[in-house]
């Protein structure tokens, strides 16, 4: 049976007590280009992710806490050269090269959107959550979402409320212009919605109670955000 020492998550704060998110350490890419080190192949990659409200319950001082024998073997393979780094989920593991490819979620979403088209069923190849004509708008939204919402739930307090107010206004404005504009950039579900969903779907249950983001709740105080969440969760396969 594997055992792990309890981690003090406050050690991840800076010396002044503020939360400063560590930059993702692994930034390689699965690529369909000829000669790529990490090429798309069936059963080559393994995606580790947390199904819980907060991944820190499964972390130790080096990051994500691997628990099964297979996962420990994977972790042992990288322990020597990468022992000074802390690896977090989501994490893309290459079983062929026995190493971590990437642990930056925004980049993995992009890879899964385009780079595996050659090995998936034809009916899924036309799915595109990063349309060329919307990329500048999606990138702008993603930057704002990351720094003002996804990161602020860890900083907590009034800043989070202010940014949720802006998000509520954005969704309300979209619907007011056209009832079909149910998503962040309008009528199309894209990368911006997917990245925001992973934070807001656990806001009331986790961040509101445990991260001091308790000024307002989405289901009571933000009807447009709540409707957007319900649409994704109840109506769209995959959420």
Automatic annotation (TrEMBL):
Among Pfam families, the record links this protein to: GST_C_2
Q: Which GO terms describe its cellular component?
A: cytoplasm
Cite the SUPFAM superfamilies for this sequence: GST C-terminal domain-like
Source organism (scientific name): Metschnikowia bicuspidata
User: Organism classification, top ranks?
Assistant: Eukaryota, Fungi, Dikarya, Ascomycota, Saccharomycotina
Q: Which GO terms describe its molecular function?
A: glutathione transferase activity
Q: What InterPro entries does this protein's entry cite? A: Glutathione-S-Trfase_C_sf, GST_Omega/GSH
Q: What is this protein called?
A: GST C-terminal domain-containing protein
